[in-house]
Amino acid sequence: MIRKITCDPQNVTVRDVVKDYNEKRMAVVKDFQRREVWQKKTVNEYIESVSEGTAVSGIIVADIESGTEASQACGDHRGAKRYKKLYAEGKRTVNEDGQNRLRKGLMAFVNNETTFTGTLFDLEYKRKQFINIKFEKLPLDFQHAFWNSTVVMVTIKNAPFRKLPAIFRKLNAGDALNRTEMRQSFQTDISNWIRDYCEGTFADMFPRFSGFSDQQIRRMRDIELVTQSFMTCNTHTKDRFFRDEDMDWFFEIGEDKPMSKVDQYDSAERQRFISILEMVYDTVNQQECVPPSKTIPQRTFWALLTVAEHFYDSNGQYTIHSFDQFYRDVYRIDFRLVTDSKISQSNDIKTARANNPHFDEEQIQKLVPDKKYYWSQCRHMETPTQRTARKTTLIDEVIAQISAGTFPSVVAPVALASK
Q1: In terms of Cα–Cα distance, which of 155, 157, 167, 146 is closest to 10?
Q2: Any idea of the CA torsion for 257, 262, 267, 271, to the nearest 10 degrees?
């Protein structure tokens, strides 16, 4: 029997929240959750509001037991299986919204994992200012007062598992979920696969690149980059754009399907891509050209990925003897191509003006469009034609330099060296 989805709000003490909604009893399903993105200032403000009694934003969870029955009733067998697995692990709820408030706020504070700066209230509701203090160092009456402060817990009942991402998106409709965070909420196994690699094997690579601050990574910029990279290297998607709508499509095609049923998620494609990305990862980690205090240009990431893909597909023709030198070789070629293309365009513009003295700048631009030149192609990697043009130019130059013996990080194959 299908029952209506309901919401049950309750005021729950911090003590009971910590007891009943800790990691052992509440699941955070990465399929549709954003990362913990709160900054220290926001955490302090939330803790202060809990102590003051003004924390009106609720922490929202889905009840697993009623959700399992609802999933079975509506034919969401995959969802019912996931609910049952969580229940067997001791989980009783799934976090829907508020994990920053719960984990980065309440849990981290009372477990002495963070310090607090701001105003707290004691049992008699008298306020006191604290600076960089851990919970265990608070006076006992302030500790007791905080344990007995209440927060709003909202329990969603009778929600099939496949409904949880949509509920999450609606809850955050006015809270600036970016497009990557929205895509992560789709019920597709590829989102877990990409996220696991971003947070595991390759986690320490992304901060090395420009545009990947801690906050940008918390907002899933790394996942966006790996999605774009996978689509670029993927036989089924290499000729597509990777704008937001295209990446949305890439995630949506796998909703409620195992990856084995989606050609674009083919295991051979995934294994090939990871091997290519590992080559980039090894290069970034072992290069000594850019010190840890400085960042590597994103343009260089794409250059490394492009050359790594070519090497991987060359069936062992190339052996990289030094990843540090490989970085220097690729960077040098890419940088020179950018510089030469800017000079070339400048000369072409001068020629166009000389040959067409009555043309205005707009007409000259049409004769000498940016997209013809390597420097511009580097800036428009989301466009397949620009991406392909850059790849062709870069790989042709790499092959030429390997053949000439001026790409010292690898040994030229015999077939090339003999030409």
Answers
A1: 155
A2: -110
pLDDT tens figures, 210-224: 989 888 898 899 999
Greatest alpha-carbon span in the chain: 88
CA 147 to chain centre: 35
d(CA 51, CA 148): 9
Q: Are 154 and 7 spatial neighbours (Cβ–Cβ below 8 Å)?
A: yes
Q: Which two tokens stand for residue 143?
A: 């500790």
Q: Which pLDDT score, from 0 to 100, does residue 419 have?
A: 42
Alpha helices (H) along 114-259? 140-147, 164-171, 179-183, 189-199, 214-218, 221-233, 244-252
Distances in Å between the Cα of 401 and the Cα atoms of 202, 206, 305, 416 are 30, 29, 18, 10
Q: How many domains does the chain have?
A: 2
Instruction: Say if residue 20's pLDDT is above 80.
Output: yes
Question: DSSP secondary structure string, 308-320?
Answer: HHHHHTTTT---B
pLDDT at 57 (0 to 100)? 75
Q: Is residue 141 part of a domain?
A: yes
pLDDT, mean of residues 277-282: 98
- Beta pairing class for 26-27 and 93-97: parallel
Angle (deg, nearest 10), helices 298-312 and 384-404:
70
| Beta-bridge partners for 152 | 11
DSSP structural state of residue 265: G
Domain end position, chosen among 117, 143, 176:
176
In a domain? residue 320? yes
DSSP code string of 333-371: HHHHHHHHHHHHHHHHHHHHHHH-TT--HHHHHHHS-GG
Q: Alpha-carbon distance 41 to 37, whole Å?
A: 12
State how far the alpha carbon of 285 is from the alpha carbons of 119, 271, 276, 309, 357, in Å.
44, 21, 15, 18, 52
Of 176, 199, 224, the one marking the end of a domain is: 176
Q: How does pLDDT run across 61-109, given as a tens digit for each residue?
A: 999 999 999 999 999 999 899 999 999 999 999 988 777 888 888 999 9
If asked whether residues 18 and 157 sit together in one domain, one would say yes
User: Angle at the Cα of 311 (from 411 to 275), degrees rounded to 5?
Assistant: 125
Nearest to 301 by CA among 276, 266, 272: 276
| pTM listed for this prediction | 0.66
